[in-house]
Write a structure and sequence with these properties.
Its cofactor is [4Fe-4S] cluster. The chain is α/β, with parallel strands linked by helices. The chain is built from 14 helices and 15 strands. It has 3 domains: 116 residues, Response regulator (Rossmann fold, 3-Layer(aba) Sandwich); 111 residues, Transcription Regulator spoIIAA, CATH 3.30.750; 123 residues, Transcription Regulator spoIIAA (2-Layer Sandwich). 34% of the residues are buried.
């Protein structure tokens, strides 16, 4: 009887891409992919820890898996696991006892060998290759990881400590993966990374990679994960002048995080609000059918009412400029992450703590002016 497996993914598109890559490794073994974790013999849980809420959801999921399917072999990977190794709290470390195999970042490429060793006890025979199907496959889409890690060290963010410094995949390997997806019937790829704009293969940047994909594959559409301002230069924008490049998505998710320069400076963000607005206006004018979405962090340490009002006004201004082209905003209440500069400054009372009631109030106020979101 064939063993069954499933992959449960929390968090960002980079996690989704890594889950797909792990799934494609697992199908080299005679495992049957299913969706229902209750019936799975092997479960991979790909985790997130970007906020306290995310960590809480992971602990809840582990408890649920072991309660409902106690005989399953549970593999845990992703940022929640990586955080435990660096600065994990006892309540997180206690959950390691429920995990059959901890899969750290460096081990993901050896997943099949580890599964054969620890799950199959070196007895499993390899089977015919099948197609791994995640939630994107049904829509003929695939998320392609092109970059990992981050050099920015925004003061609130734990990701650079968990995923390391920025590193990019080779263009040659990316093109091969895209052609493989194309042969599986995939029509749209979504390029993703922790800092997509920091992609670099030698002297070649993200714009060059996009040109290579356009010229050397037959993929129908190229979309982008979250992207920051630094790559959105004239060379990038010029890609949209050639109408054969209507394969390129005109939607951009560009995190603003705050509409106040003082807050952005404490966050370690490397731009001014006026430059952000100027770039959004330019993209709106030069890219056909441009649409925009963004992220905001509310209640960042030291965020005064005056600073919040600046963010409020900027969002109203962006709505006025873009109208229906401003399609979504993700509102996050600031979440303290151990080891970050923001947490140290807050704990040292250099930056004032913003209580949860104020954070909720600010989220509510912004939701009132963005009801269609």
């Amino acid at each position: 009887m064939n063993k069954k497996y499933t992959i449960i993914t929390f968090g960002c598109r980079l996690n989704q891409a890594e889950s797909r890559m792990m799934g494609e490794n697992l199908i080299k073994l005679s495992l049957t992919q299913i969706k229902d974790f209750k019936k799975a013999d092997l479960i991979i849980l790909n985790t997130c820890t970007v906020t306290h809420k995310a960590s809480r959801e992971i602990r809840k999921e582990i408890r649920k898996i072991k309660r409902v399917n106690p005989k399953s072999f549970l593999i845990v990977t992703g940022c929640w696991l990586y955080k435990i190794r660096i600065s994990g709290e006892k309540k997180d470390k206690d959950f390691l006892k429920l995990i059959n195999l901890s899969l750290y970042k460096k081990d993901q490429k050896n997943l099949t060998k580890l599964v054969e060793k620890h799950f199959f006890k070196n007895k499993q025979v390899k089977s015919k290759r099948k197609i791994y199907q995640d939630k994107y496959y049904q829509s003929q889409k695939a998320i392609i990881k092109v970059q990992d890690g981050c050099n920015n060290f925004c003061t609130y963010c734990i990701v650079p400590f968990l995923r390391g410094r920025s590193q990019s995949r080779k263009i040659k390997k990316i093109l091969k993966e895209i052609r493989d997806k194309q042969n599986q019937g995939i029509k749209e790829i979504i390029l993703t990374g922790v800092d997509l704009a920091d992609f670099k293969d030698g002297k070649n940047d993200l714009t060059y990679l996009i040109k290579e994909i356009l010229n050397k594959t037959k993929i129908k559409k190229i979309s982008f994960g979250s992207i920051n301002l630094k790559i959105l230069n004239q060379d990038f924008i010029s890609l949209y002048k050639n109408m054969q490049n209507n394969k390129l998505s005109s939607h951009f998710h560009i995190p603003l995080q705050s509409g106040c320069d003082e807050t952005l400076e404490r966050m370690g963000r490397k731009y001014k609000v006026k430059d952000f607005i100027k770039k959004i206006k330019e993209l709106n004018q030069k890219i056909p059918n441009f649409t925009f979405s963004t992220d905001l962090i509310l209640g960042f340490p030291g965020e005064t009412e005056k600073e919040f009002r600046k963010t409020y006004k900027i969002i109203k201004n962006l709505k006025k400029i873009l109208k229906n082209n401003f399609i979504k905003i993700h509102l996050f209440r600031y979440s303290k992450r151990k080891g970050t500069r923001a947490t140290k400054m807050e704990n040292g009372k250099v930056w004032k703590n913003i209580n949860d009631a104020v954070k909720k109030k600010r989220v509510k106020q912004l939701k009132k002016i963005t009801p269609n979101f």
